[in-house]
Design goal:
- The protein is α+β, with helices and mostly antiparallel strands and 445 residues long.
- It is 32% helix and 19% strand.
- It contains 15 helices and 15 strands.
- The strands form 5 sheets. Strands 6-13-7-12-10-11 form a 6-stranded mixed β-sheet, sandwiched between helices. A 3-stranded antiparallel β-sheet has the order 3-4-5, with no helix packed on it.
- Helix 10 packs across helix 15.
- 36% of the residues are buried.
Length: 445
């Protein structure tokens, strides 16, 4: 955008920054598989990998960063100064279809069509990106002050439903729903003596006592469906899992009671599951104190309590200075969301474990470990043939459903909702959940 060509050395520099743990709290999984990046000439990038990787051609592993703009600041060795530098905000220089011309921190960004964009000048001349809370997004979209709220926005079920119904009744807009991942319960394994950590039957019972359909109705307003497994029904791997007769846990309190009885937990006359010593089965449901989490947590804790569990609700304040630590040291269950991607399928591998050493970052917040999961995930990441890779993914997901390091509840969705005058947004892949990928082709009446 400043008229300077992208060169191969920008990828070398980007890899250097992305692999420096002093500058990033956690190295992205793809970066860890790269041994080095070379630039034999300004137009050639050579990436050397430590092992075969299905992500090697995705273009996301080694990012391009302009050494000419950031190199001196990086060489000072001050991570805080580097991260707070103006390049990341008001002085940003990019390569995309729109060149930033104004940035009001906390308010909005404005871009103008970049004449030299490699796919051709965008069809829409001017773009304004507004930072709004979900309520304001809905109001401005319905009033016509916004043209689109993309699928990655943080609208909850009732907000997406409200917009969709309004557009349908007035014929003034469109809603395109895409599956982004799953809403799930992360199980805590840090204390191996807890009933749920030491006995898979307790985890199975918790899955059977989770009324996901009620959550979909009450908090997602039927905009999505229950997740019978980690992979959505329109994914080819889902069919492979059905062929493998993968375990499933539809809401079934009677079956759950039998499973708990086998594990040594029986219903007392006061309708509370307890062990031989008379101790109740206590399952704390933890949520973050934002968005739809408290409502979902309250609903699930109520379900569990009604079915015989001692199930208090714990809220993790989003403003807590140690929020990452609290999100990794919850007592039993934690509401979480994940996006479907090769990297995130490895959430429950040892390398993704959130610890003090990783500043409590990592998808494996419950510290689950199963060497077979690590083996299968490695096989999945290194299998280039598509059919064989899908088979490896099915084996991995089947193990997840057998051992239940986490409990899937329903498919997480996003909805691109936009006025009828805008043409171009469509469904997006779960692994590339960004409606703007083709924004240079969008048009407006």
């Amino acid at each position: 955008h400043d008229g300077t060509p992208l060169v191969a050395d920008d990828f070398v520099f980007g890899q250097k920054v992305a692999s420096d743990l002093n500058f990033l709290q956690q190295t992205p999984p793809g970066i860890r598989l790269i041994s080095n990046v070379e630039a034999p000439d300004p137009q050639t990038v050579v990436v050397n990998w430590k092992q075969t990787s299905i992500d090697a051609n995705a273009g996301t592993a080694s990012p391009a960063l302009p050494r000419r703009l950031l190199g001196e600041l990086y060489d000072r060795g001050d991570p805080q100064a580097f991260q707070n530098g103006p390049y990341w905000s008001t002085a940003f220089v990019g390569l995309g279809p729109y060149k930033m011309v104004a940035w009001q921190p906390g308010g909005q960004m404005e871009g103008e069509a970049f004449d030299k964009y490699f796919l051709g000048r965008p069809k829409i001349d001017r773009l304004i990106v507004k930072y709004l809370d979900p309520e304001a997004s809905v109001l401005q979209l319905m009033s016509g002050d916004l043209d689109i709220v993309p699928a990655g926005a943080s609208l909850d079920g009732i907000q997406m439903y409200t917009v969709a119904q309004g557009f349908q009744s007035s014929a003034t807009g469109n809603t395109v729903v895409s599956t982004s991942g799953d809403r799930y319960l992360a199980v805590q394994f840090r204390d191996p003596a807890t009933p749920w950590a030491r006995d898979v039957r307790v985890r199975q019972a918790l899955a059977l006592l989770s009324d996901s359909k009620a959550l979909v109705e009450s908090t997602a307003y039927n905009m999505t469906t229950v997740a019978d497994m980690w992979i959505p029904a329109d994914d080819p791997v889902h069919q492979l899992l059905l062929q493998r007769q993968v375990a499933s846990y539809p809401y079934d309190p009677t079956r759950a009671a039998r499973v708990l009885a086998d594990a040594g937990w029986t219903l007392s006359p006061s309708h509370v599951f307890q062990n031989a010593a008379g101790e109740p089965l206590t399952i704390t449901v933890s949520v973050q104190g934002r968005g739809v989490d408290p409502k979902e947590g309250e609903a699930l804790a109520g379900q569990y309590s009604g079915e015989g569990l001692n199930s208090p609700l714990a809220t993790i304040p989003s403003s807590a200075p140690n929020v990452d630590e609290l999100n990794a040291t919850y007592p039993a269950l934690l509401f979480k969301s994940w996006s479907i991607s090769p990297a995130n399928l490895g959430y429950w591998t040892k390398g993704q474990t959130a610890t003090a050493e990783t500043r409590w970052k990592g998808g494996n917040v419950g510290a689950y470990f199963n060497p077979e999961v690590d083996r299968l995930y490695d096989r999945y990441l290194t299998t280039l043939d598509l059919s064989a890779r899908q088979s490896a993914e099915a084996d991995l997901v089947k193990l997840y459903m057998d051992d239940l390091p986490s409990i899937p509840l329903y498919y997480r969705i996003g909805a691109a909702q936009f006025r009828s005058v805008l043409h171009g947004p469509g469904k997006v892949s779960p692994s590339e959940f960004a409606n703007s990928w083709n924004i240079s082709t969008w048009t407006m009446d």
